[in-house]
Amino acid sequence: MINKGFTIIEVLVSLVILSIITLITSNILQSSLDTESKTTQHLNLIKSINLSSSKVRRDLRQIVNVTSYDFFGKKMNGSFISNENSNSLLFNSYIRSFSEKVSPIKRIEYQYQENTLKRRQYFSSNPYNQDEFVESILLTDLEKFNISFFYKNKWHSSWPIINTSTKIPMLIKIEFIQKNKSYIWIIEPNISNEFN
Q1: Are 147 and 117 in contact (CB under 8 A)?
Q2: Domain range annotation of the chain
């Protein structure tokens, strides 16, 4: 009578081959999961940057060049303001309201603080309470942030400059680094309503 079973060597060889196949398959699966996770993070980052860019561009393209007053009723030194080394923008923009009883002109302020770009929208163009605003965080984990303004064939680091308190810059450049990648936004604001 002939025994038709497997020898111990055949079983061991089969187990070694099965182990190698399992190891290779699990490495491929782990690599696929890591790639999917990195791709998702990258797509979310791109989506966040695109959404932030759209918000900033919308606000600047709907800019309204009107006289601004501080929270104490004192006239400010311009209708569009970004002080030296402040990494902030302050201006008025046309934003539709649900009610026609409320002015559509709102004060907008962009601030770069603690590696974060924030957008504040006050409830009127000349608010009297500096604590009444809606704030949203646009970008986080920024390593560098810089704003500059183009006027008369030259870039400036603050605004207004000499004799421009009633003017809007021709171009606004926002530069930042996020996740070791550099970005530059160059935005052309609405200057059609500029004061004479």
Answers
A1: no
A2: 8-196
pTM (two decimals) = 0.77
123-162 pLDDT, tens digit per residue, is 888 888 888 899 999 999 999 999 999 999 999 999 998 8
SS (H, E, C) the chain: CCCCCCCHHHHHHHHHHHHHHHHHHHHHHHHHHHHHHHHHHHHHHHHHHHHHHHHHHHHHHCEECCCCECCCCCECCCCEEECCCCCEEEEEEECCCCCCCCCCEEEEEEEEECCEEEEEEECCCCCCCCCCEEEEEEECCEEEEEEEEEECCEEECCECCCCCCCCCCCEEEEEEEECCEEEEEEECCCCCCCCC
Q: What backbone torsions phi and psi does residue 195 show, to the nearest 5 degrees?
A: -65, 150
- Interval 30-80: pLDDT, tens: 999 999 999 998 899 899 999 999 999 999 999 988 888 888 888 888 889
